Amino acid sequence: xxxxxxxxxxxxxxxxxxxxxxxxxxxxxxxxxxxxxxxxxxxxxxxxxxxxxxxxxxxxxxxxxxxxxxxxxxxxxxxxxxxxxxxxxxxxxxxxxxxxxxxxxxxxxxxxxxxxxxxxxxxxxxxxxxxxxxxxxxxxxxxxxxxxxxxxxxxxxxxxxxxxxxxxxxxxxxxxxxxxxxxxxxxxxxxxxxxxxxxxxxxxxxxxxxxxxxxxxxxx
Length: 220
Description:
Number of strands: 11
Structural class: alpha/beta
Radius of gyration: 19 Å
CATH class of the largest domain: Alpha Beta
CATH superfamily of the largest domain: Response regulator
DNA-binding region: 123-217
Strand content: 15-25%
Shape: elongated
Low-confidence stretches: none
Protein name: Response regulator
Domain OmpR/PhoB-type: 123-217
CATH architecture of the largest domain: 3-Layer(aba) Sandwich
Keywords: DNA-binding, Phosphoprotein, Transcription, Transcription regulation
Organism: Comamonas faecalis
């Protein structure tokens, strides 16, 4: 998943960013409310981890502005504001969950997984040329045979399989894999494409010379 971490505390931000990247998520880190608002207007995210006490613009206002744009991106508030009134206000503003600081990192991951499952529950499984992906369960299969995809293989295949025949550039696929400031190896996408071809078949993902990659509209 591509996540936006909104956190002004450097120590907490670095720890959470490292944790999420260790789980193979692409993470962008906004350190104030204005930067968070800009990121949310420019980039689509799978989930937002939002602090409330932020410089520039309060996190609650960031959330209200997001929901005012009819953006339903899941939002997990993570804050030291522990009054019941604060929790009610955050949830009423459109947050999907509310986690109090200091929190256990394992609990944070569990809550993120729960929100991802909830969001995927409304997404239908889709299938093309014998390859089937089910976002709700994160299950993949080829001609009815289950295959195990890594998180980053899934991140590459998902947008390609969703639009058979559409060409995505390497940069577009890298955007699914890496967050701001994260080092990108020159052949990262090629490595995951190679892994997908081994698991799904040599013709499952095609290289369009000079343009990028595509899942063929018709079975190869």
